[in-house]
Amino acid sequence: MKFIVGLLLGLLVVPFGAYLYFTGGGAPVATTDSDMPFETFFAQKALNARIAKDMPKTVPIPATEASHLAGADLYKQHCAVCHGLPMAPKTAIALGMYPRPPQLFQGKGVTDDEPGETYWKIFNGIRLTGMPGFSKSLTETQIWQVALLLANADKLPASAKAALVAPIVASTPMVSVPPATAAPVFPNAVPSSAPPPK
C-alpha cells in the first residue's frame, strides 16, 4: 500500500514541479539562455523523424545553371539575413537568434542533406527556431530552386557564385499596398461642423 501511495505521489510531484518550473520563471525563454535539459536532443529527434516521414523523395526540377541563378536570387532576398552569404560575416539577426541559424555557405552547409529534406524545411519551417515556412509566399518551383542551390552549394557554377555576392536588387513587393484613400465614413459619426448634442 505504501508503495502505491508513494508511486501516486511521485506521479503528481513530477508534473507539478514542471508546472512550477515553467510558471515560476525558471524556464529558459531568452535567446541568451542555455538549453533546457534534453531540449536539443528531443527537438532534433522529433524533427528528423518528421522530415524522414514527410519529405519528398524525388526532385521535380533539374539542377541547372538557370535554376541555381533563380535560387541564388531567392536565397539572397529571403534567407541570407539569417543563413549568410559566401565570404560575408554573420548579420546582427543571425548573431541574436536562438537556436543559432546555420551558415549555409560556410563549411558543408546542407550539401550532405537530401534536397527533399531542405525543401521540407523551407516549405514548412521549424517551430520555435525562427525558421519560417515559405509555403504561402513562394511557389513550389521557387522552393525547389533554393533547395537545389543549397544542395549544390559546394559545386555551383561561377555565375551562381557571382550572383550570390552581387548586391541585392530591389524587387517588386509580393503584397501590393492600396493607395491612400479618404478617411472612412462612419454612419453614426457626428460631423465636426455640427453643433454639440444638447
Would you mind describing this structure in some detail?
The chain has helices spanning 2-23, 39-54, 65-78, 80-83, 92-96, 115-124, 140-151, 158-165. It has a domain at 63-165: Cytochrome Bc1 Complex, Chain D, domain 2 (Orthogonal Bundle). The longest helix is centred in the N-terminal third of the chain and has 22 residues, at 2-23. Helices cover 46% and strands 0% of the residues. By secondary structure, the chain is mostly helical.
In short:
With 198 residues, this protein is mainly alpha-helical.
Write the layout of secondary structure elements.
Blueprint: H1 2-23, H2 39-54, H3 65-78, H4 80-83, H5 92-96, H6 115-124, H7 140-151, H8 158-165
List keywords for this structure.
mainly alpha; Cytochrome Bc1 Complex, Chain D, domain 2
Global morphology: elongated
Poorly predicted regions are: 182-187
* Class by SSE composition: mainly alpha
CATH topology title of the domain at 63-165: Cytochrome Bc1 Complex, Chain D, domain 2
- Annotated CATH architecture of the domain at 63-165: Orthogonal Bundle
- Strand elements, count: 0
Superfamily at the CATH H level of the domain at 63-165? Answer: Cytochrome c-like domain
**Overall pLDDT:** 86
